[in-house]
Design a protein that fits this description.
The protein is of the alpha+beta class. The protein has a single domain, classed as Chitinase A, domain 3 (Roll), CATH 3.10.50.40. 30% of the residues lie in helices and 23% in strands. It has five helices and eight strands; from the N terminus they run ααβββββαβαββα. A six-stranded antiparallel sheet has the order 1-2-7-8-3-6, with helices on one face. A two-stranded antiparallel ribbon has the order 4-5. The protein starts with a helix and ends with a helix.
Length: 182
């Protein structure tokens, strides 16, 4: 009996060690800085492509938006001055093309959209560009991939990190009641 107690006591001391911290379930691979550098390099390449398109296009006068897209007007409305505000309902059409002018999605394929400004999901470039156009205006935009469908694509015809060109036509702007009072 004494031997059994002695053995249990020895195992008790040996089994009790210092507490070990748990290891993380996920281990991070890569670094944030490397991702930032990749994104900067990709943006620089895409901006170079945009610069080439602009320099080769002597027919249009391009403007730069505050969000990073380049665009030119195909049809400008010189009479109206109202641009869409949050909560306005905008009816518009658009297409999606590659930088080499290959049609990815046509106006007909996408149809006519009704969009409540800043309240519905659109890809970032389109969401911001709608706010630059007045009723009855058409403009063609050049979007780097970060403003298009980004690193995810659209899970159909647009791949990962693909810059796009899009022609947008605002057909109608229905002002929200708050916008009318202001």
């Amino acid at each position: 009996m004494r031997q059994l107690l002695l053995i249990l006591l020895v195992f008790g001391f040996v089994g009790c060690g210092a507490p070990e911290p748990r290891r993380p379930v996920k281990v991070k691979s890569g670094s944030f800085n490397a991702s930032v550098e990749r994104s900067k390099k990709l943006l620089a390449e895409e901006e170079g492509m945009i610069d080439t398109i602009i320099s080769n296009d002597s027919l249009h006068n391009y403007e730069h938006s505050a969000t990073g897209a380049w665009y030119y007007y195909e049809q400008k409305n010189e009479i109206l001055t109202y641009k869409p505000q949050p909560d306005d309902l905008v009816t518009f059409t658009y297409n999606v093309m590659s930088f080499t002018n290959d049609t990815i999605y046509s106006h007909e394929e996408l149809g006519v959209f009704k969009y409540k400004v800043d309240k519905q999901e659109l890809f970032p470039g389109l969401r911001n560009s709608i706010k630059l156009l007045q009723e009855k205006e058409t403009a063609t935009f050049l979007f780097p991939s970060s403003l298009a469908y980004g690193y995810h694509g659209d899970n159909d015809k647009i791949g990962i990190n693909v810059p796009i060109k899009s022609t947008i036509t605002v057909l109608k702007i229905e002002k929200q009641q708050d916008s009318i009072q202001n």
